[in-house]
Amino acid sequence: MQIVRPIRRPVVRTVSWWPFLTGSLCLTLTVSLAAAEVAPGDVAFYENEIRPLLVKHCHECHGDSEDREGELSLTSVAAMMRGGASGPAVVKGQPKESLLVQALEYRGIEMPPNGKLPQNEIDKIVRWVRMGMPAPEETDSSALRKPSSGEQFITEEDRSHWAFQPISVSSPPNVDDPDWNSNPIDRFLFREMQQRQIEPNGMADRATLLRRATYDLTGLPPTPREVHEYLSDDSSDAWEKVIERLLSSPRYGERWGRHWLDVVRYADTAGDASDYPVPDAYKYRNYVINSFNSDKPYDQFLREQIAGDLLAADAPREQYEELVTATTFLAISRRFGYNDTNFQYFHLTIQDLLDTLGQSVMGLSIGCARCHDHKFEPISAKDYYALYGIFSSTKFAFPGAEEVRHPKGLVPAIHPEEVQQLELSRQDRIARLDQKIQERIFPILNLQGDFESSEDFPATWKRDAEARVVANSSSPFHNVFPPGTQSVQLPNDSRNLGIRRAIETQTADTEAPLFINMDFRNISSDQSGEGYYRIALDHPENNFSPAVELFINESSVAARQSAQLTQIAPLESGVWYNLQIVVHWREKQFSGVLTDGTHSWPFKNLPFNSGWDGVVNSWVVDGHGTDATLTRPLRELDNFYAQDHPFLPAAERASLQKVSPQEQLNLQIPVLKELQDEKAALLEQKLYPTIYGVQEGIPANAQIQFRGEPDRRGEEVPRGFLEILGGDTLPANCKESGRRELAEWLTSSTNPLTARVMVNRIWQAHFGRGIVATPNDLGLRGERPSHPELLDYLSSQFLDHGYSIKSVHRMILSSRAYRLSSEVNPRSLSTDPANVWFWRHERQRLDAESIRDSWLFLSGELEFRAGGAHPFPPVSQWTYSQHVPFEAVYDSNLRSIFLMTQRIKGHPFLALFDGADPNATTGKRDTTTTPSQALFMMNNEFLAQRSIALAERLLQAVSTQPEQIIHLYEQAYARRPSDTEVEQALEFLQAYGENVSDSSSRSKEALAAFVRVVLCSNEFLHVN
Question: Is the pTM for the entire model greater than 0.90?
Answer without folding.
Answer: no
